[in-house]
């Protein structure tokens, strides 16, 4: 115990979370503070660990599909999509174009919903109270479409290995186009509240800066990586489904700060609308299920498949031993790996910035802890 | 009747008793206003945010403040194990006392105030600074990290903004030549111009400082819920929490009252010196009638039978009140309090509006604005006012007023 | 996806080469994980998925290890391996050499057992830990 005098500044160790309004779940961050300045952070995670990968080894391939929805529970559709595609790759199944376009539409809508949730909570963390209510209003519209399609709003279990279980309901295309028309002006509305707001700019510019080199070294992916100026999107780089047949841009930032990541995600929502519109145009009647047997018994082997989830690269590594149960399922969770950058990003910042940085990383604890 | 009469005379003749009666009235009315200010805030915020706000307790949630108050009264009063007990108990009381005491010198109308002391403005500054102790002691005595950080933030924030806000007030003081609140309004009346037009910069600085001093968004750092959970009152519960809550909202009313008195002509109606606008004195009648119609409209929309009756009853009450107010003596009597109240409500609405609009400043940014922008600006404003007042303004303002007055 | 088997002694050198421009510029360690084959002599597979932005291709590395062998850490090559290796240690009990902070990531630090090993039954739990820390008989 070092001797301290009255004038010595003492380090203050604060436990932020696991019950704290701004940690987006049960994240616990130990902060070492000098006054309000952060000297170091340590994440303590695992409060939501459910052993998803262990569960997978005791289920069949099809039985495990609903479980993946519970990881990133605010983007269940993309989670499910990654998993079923990985199994399809293992089985060597082609899925018909109608199913592909349906998946893309729902996945992009899910990206919008996920980004809306991020925007609302991120703004709330920085003290802007109103955007969260607006974004939830629009997110509700997306969830209504999901509910109409598959009966569930949050953990959708929307896709099946080999295609879709349900064909689209009547009026799906109309609903989706209506949402696209309704949604774009709303994005402008959010931007009116925030983009040029001086306080917002002060709170996000030069906050949580991560350079492209640092980001790549820390395996950071998704909008966080693009915010640092790396133009890399798996939908473009290694297209899956029919992403090579639609046109869209990959928005990138410049400085890798919180503001740039905000701009990137706002632009991504617009691009998602663009993709959805193209898919609605191209979707044609046809089969929705590929040639898949009743019992899923993939040949022995291994496969790694990754997709661009709203939060970054969501990868599935599957090992099959030729039985009905997967031998090993590994999920590469974008949230966990992006969260690792918190320490680098929060160096020499104030307590208030930690909150902004956790928000800008857009983590979901269900996925961090699995 | 005679007994009542003589009692009335006795009260009027005994200054101390008269003051006591006024204090009771003001305290009672103000507590109600503060409670319904919370209701107003929740409703206005809700309407700005595409929701409805409290709707369950009473028609349109009108009884929500009562329910909240009862709930807070009945909650367990928790004192943390490591807390400095006496200070912990004392701190919220200090906050509330300081907030309510200020009303002693605020003139709600030309003839309705508890007291008019010749150092009124100084008194207000002194007492409202005392309120900071409530926050600092509360945060410190909780013996917990988040409250301590909140208290540190608030002490720094309040002290620095007190300086800027105080200097902005000195500008008015120079113009009015008096510290008495009543005198300041009277001077605005005789000058024929509200001081906000002579002191626009000072007004702006004061408004910003007022938002900061009341810990309201975008300067609500001492209790920033996403950073410090609840800031200085994290460890408080039940009635003691309610006291802090009340103090915050009372402070909002206080700073609004000060701003209205000093810059917006207190109880004077807009353009008090323009005879052509004398018809504005019927505004209270119109306001009551308007409220009646609005309530009736709400009631007719309502699907619940009982609620419909209640609203019709309320609307009828408004109309009766409007009729009562239409009597010339009553109309003249309530002129001051009506305009004062209206201006204060506009101010309070602005407070709520800020909360719905702005993100929160960061601690160091807040201090930067305070020390690098606000205080130099206030100082410049003060010096400019002093110089102008000495050489030029007094003469020309009089001429200008004479021009407008005609 | 091409796959390479690497001996653990050469692992760090191979990784460094792969990261360099001559080796294909595999700048990003996308994922690092393990799989357990208890019937083999070297029961663990440590699997690295690399990505190269230049070539836009992925590469899988595989290192085999027995239960009591230490694996060299690649945190020196890709700092992002830090938590991933901690998770593997947590779930499989594979110990890394040269890792800056070798402790459990998801489970409590005092937990006994490594759940993703094949011999760890899905219903098993560290009962002593559950009893002392949660004050209940069973976490199930």
List keywords for this structure.
heterotrimer; A: 370 residues; alpha+beta; Cytochrome-c3 Hydrogenase, chain B; three-stranded antiparallel β-sheet; 8 strands; 48% helix
Q: Which percent range describes the beta-strand content of chain B?
A: under 5%
Total of DSSP H or I helical runs spanning 4+ residues of chain C: 3
Helical content band of chain B: over 70%
Shape of chain B: globular
Note the overall shape of chain C.
Answer: elongated
Largest interface, counted by CB within 8 Å of the partner chain's CB: A-C, 33 and 33 residues
CATH domain class name of chain C: Alpha Beta
The chain-level structural class of chain C is: alpha/beta
Give the overall pLDDT of chain C as a whole number: 85
**CATH homologous superfamily grouping of chain C:** NADH:ubiquinone oxidoreductase Nqo5 subunit
Cα Rg of chain C: 17 Å
Could you explain the architecture of this structure?
The complex is a heterotrimer of chains A (370), B (406) and C (140). Chain A is 48% helix and 13% strand. Chain A is an alpha+beta fold. Chain A has a single domain (51-369), classed as Cytochrome-c3 Hydrogenase, chain B (Orthogonal Bundle). In chain A, the strands form 3 sheets. In chain A, strands 1-2-3 form a 3-stranded antiparallel β-sheet, with no helix packed on it. Chain A has a 3-stranded antiparallel β-sheet with strand order 6-7-8. In chain A, helix 2 (61-69) packs antiparallel against helix 3, helix 3 (76-91) runs antiparallel to helix 4 and helix 5 (131-150) runs antiparallel to helix 6 (172-194). Chain A is globular, with a radius of gyration of 21 Å. The mean pLDDT of chain A is 86. The longest helix of chain B is centred in the C-terminal third of the chain and has 43 residues, at 363-405. Chain B starts with a helix and ends with a helix. Chain C has 140 residues and is an alpha/beta fold. Chain C has a single domain, classed as Beta Polymerase, domain 2. In chain C, the strands form 2 sheets. In chain C, strands 1-4-3-2 form a 4-stranded mixed β-sheet. A two-stranded parallel sheet of chain C has the order 5-6. The interface between A and C is medium-sized, with 33 and 33 residues.
């Amino acid at each position: 115990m070092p001797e301290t005098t009255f004038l010595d500044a003492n380090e203050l160790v604060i436990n932020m979370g696991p019950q704290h309004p701004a940690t987006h779940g049960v994240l616990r961050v130990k902060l070492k503070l000098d006054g309000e300045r952060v000297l170091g952070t340590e994440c303590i995670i695992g409060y939501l660990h459910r052993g998803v990968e262990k569960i997978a080894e005791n289920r069949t391939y099809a039985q495990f599909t609903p479980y993946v929805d519970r990881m990133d529970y605010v983007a269940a559709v993309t989670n499910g999509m990654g998993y079923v595609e990985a199994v399809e790759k293992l089985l060597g199944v082609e899925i018909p174009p109608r199913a592909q376009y349906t998946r893309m539409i729902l996945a992009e809508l899910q990206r919008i919903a996920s980004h809306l949730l991020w925007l609302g909570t991120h703004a709330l963390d920085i003290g802007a109270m109103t955007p969260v209510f607006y974004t939830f209003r629009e997110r509700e519209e997306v969830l209504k479409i999901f509910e109409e399609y598959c009966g569930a709003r949050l953990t959708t279990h929307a896709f099946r290995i080999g295609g879709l279980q349900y064909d689209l309901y009547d009026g799906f295309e109309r609903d989706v186009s209506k949402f696209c028309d309704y949604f774009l002006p709303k994005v402008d509305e959010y931007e009116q509240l925030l983009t040029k707001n001086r306080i917002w700019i002060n709170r996000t510019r030069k906050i949580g800066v991560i350079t492209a080199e640092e980001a790549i070294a820390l395996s950071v992916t998704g909008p966080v990586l693009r915010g640092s100026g790396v133009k890399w999107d798996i939908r473009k780089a290694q297209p899956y489904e029919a992403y090579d047949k639609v046109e869209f841009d990959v928005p990138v930032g410049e400085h890798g700060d919180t503001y740039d990541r905000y701009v990137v995600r706002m632009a991504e929502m617009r691009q998602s609308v663009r993709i959805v519109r193209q898919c609605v145009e191209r979707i044609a009647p046809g089969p929705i299920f590929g040639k898949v047997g009743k019992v899923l018994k993939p040949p022995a082997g291994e496969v790694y498949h990754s997709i661009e989830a709203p939060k970054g690269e969501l990868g599935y590594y599957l090992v099959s031993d030729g039985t009905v149960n997967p031998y090993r399922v590994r999920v590469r969770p974008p949230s966990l790996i992006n969260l690792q950058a918190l320490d680098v990003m929060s160096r020499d910042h104030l307590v208030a910035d930690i909150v902004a940085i956790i928000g800008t990383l857009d983590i979901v604890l269900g996925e961090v802890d699995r | 009747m005679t007994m009542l009469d003589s009692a009335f005379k006795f009260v009027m003749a005994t200054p101390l008793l008269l003051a006591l009666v006024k204090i009771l009235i003001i305290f009672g009315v103000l507590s109600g206003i503060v409670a319904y200010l919370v209701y107003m805030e929740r409703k206005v915020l809700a309407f700005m945010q595409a929701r409805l706000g409290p709707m369950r307790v009473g028609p349109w949630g009108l009884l929500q403040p009562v329910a909240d108050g009862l709930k807070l009264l009945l909650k367990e009063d928790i004192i943390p194990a490591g807390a400095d007990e006496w200070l912990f108990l004392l701190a919220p009381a200090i906050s509330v006392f300081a907030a309510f005491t200020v009303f002693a010198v605020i003139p709600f109308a030309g003839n309705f105030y508890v007291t008019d002391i010749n150092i009124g403005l100084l008194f207000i500054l002194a007492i409202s600074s005392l309120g900071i102790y409530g926050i600092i002691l509360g945060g410190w005595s909780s013996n917990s990290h988040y409250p301590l950080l909140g208290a540190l933030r608030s002490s720094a924030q309040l002290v620095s903004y007190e300086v800027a806000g105080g200097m902005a007030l000195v500008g008015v003081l120079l113009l009015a030549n008096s510290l008495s609140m009543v005198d300041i309004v009277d001077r605005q009346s005789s000058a024929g111009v509200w001081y906000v037009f002579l002191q626009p910069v000072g007004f702006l600085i004061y408004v910003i400082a007022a938002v900061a001093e009341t810990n309201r968004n975008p300067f609500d750092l001492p209790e920033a819920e996403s950073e410090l959970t609840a800031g200085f009152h994290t460890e408080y519960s039940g009635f003691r929490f309610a006291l802090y809550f009340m103090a915050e909202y009372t402070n909002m009313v206080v700073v609004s009252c000060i701003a209205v008195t000093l810059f917006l002509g207190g109880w004077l109606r807009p353009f008090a010196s323009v005879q052509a606008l004398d018809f504005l004195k019927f505004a209270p009648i119109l306001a009551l009638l308007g409220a009646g119609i609005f309530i009736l409209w709400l009631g007719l929309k309502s699907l619940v039978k009982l609620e419909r009756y209640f609203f019709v009853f309320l609307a009828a009450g408004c109309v009766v009140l409007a009729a009562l107010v239409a009597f010339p003596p009553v109309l003249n009597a309530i002129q001051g309090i009506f305009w004062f109240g209206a201006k204060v409500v506009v101010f309070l609405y602005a407070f709520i509006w800020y909360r719905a609009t702005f993100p929160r400043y960061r601690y160091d940014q807040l201090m930067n604005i305070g020390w690098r922008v606000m205080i130099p600006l206030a100082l410049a404003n003060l010096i400019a006012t002093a110089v102008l007042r000495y050489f030029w303004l007094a003469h020309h303002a009089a001429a200008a007023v004479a021009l407008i007055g005609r | 996806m091409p796959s390479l088997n690497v001996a653990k002694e050469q692992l760090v050198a191979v990784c460094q080469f792969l990261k360099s421009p001559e080796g294909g510029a595999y700048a990003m360690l996308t994922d690092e994980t393990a799989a357990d084959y208890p019937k083999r002599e070297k029961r663990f597979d440590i699997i690295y998925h690399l990505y190269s932005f230049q070539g836009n291709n992925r590469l899988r590395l595989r290192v085999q290890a027995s239960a009591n062998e230490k694996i060299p850490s690649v945190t020196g090559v890709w700092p992002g391996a830090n938590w991933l290796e901690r998770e593997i240690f947590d779930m499989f009990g594979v110990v890394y050499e040269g890792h800056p902070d070798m402790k459990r990531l998801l489970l409590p630090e005092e937990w006994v057992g490594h759940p993703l090993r094949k011999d760890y039954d899905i219903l098993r739990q560290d009962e002593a830990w559950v009893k002392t820390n949660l004050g209940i008989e069973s976490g199930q």
